[in-house]
Amino acid sequence: MEKIQINGEFIQLDKLLKLAAVVQTGGHAKFLITSGEVTVNGEVETRRGKKIYKGDKVQVEGESIEVI
Predict the structure, then answer these.
(1) CA gap 32, 29 in Å, rounded
(2) I need a labelling partner for 25 at 20 to 30 A (CA). Which of 35, 49, 54, 61 fits?
(3) Is residue 4 classed exposed, middle or buried when 0-12, 13-18 and 19+ CB atoms within 10 A define those classes?
(4) What is the maximum span of the chain, computed from C-alpha positions, in angstroms?
(5) How confident is the model at residue 50 (pLDDT cuts 50, 70, 90)?
(6) What per-residue confidence (pLDDT) applies to 3?
(7) What secondary structure does DSSP assign to 6-49, as a single string?
(8) What is the mean pLDDT of residues 19-38?
(9) How far apart, in Å, do the first and last CA atoms of the chain sit?
(10) Going edge to edge, which strands form the sheet with 2-4?
(11) pTM
(12) Phi and psi for 58 in degrees, rounded to 5?
């Protein structure tokens, strides 16, 4: 599981995927999210602007990301 540290209170889901280098572009992030291929804390998330807070766990394409 990759741990990503954020500086603010939250980060948007699409920006987190780019920060973690899971995707190269915002378009790819949008595609994965709207296709239902991303889960946040075990539940499918289709909103790319979803706020991700410290302690949340995101899974996509076999990658697990924990926000710290």
Answers:
(1) 5
(2) 54
(3) middle
(4) 28
(5) very high
(6) 96
(7) -SSSEEEHHHHHHHTTS-SSHHHHHHHHHTT-EEETTEE---TT
(8) 95
(9) 12
(10) 2-4, 63-67, 57-60, 38-40, 43-44
(11) 0.93
(12) -120, 135
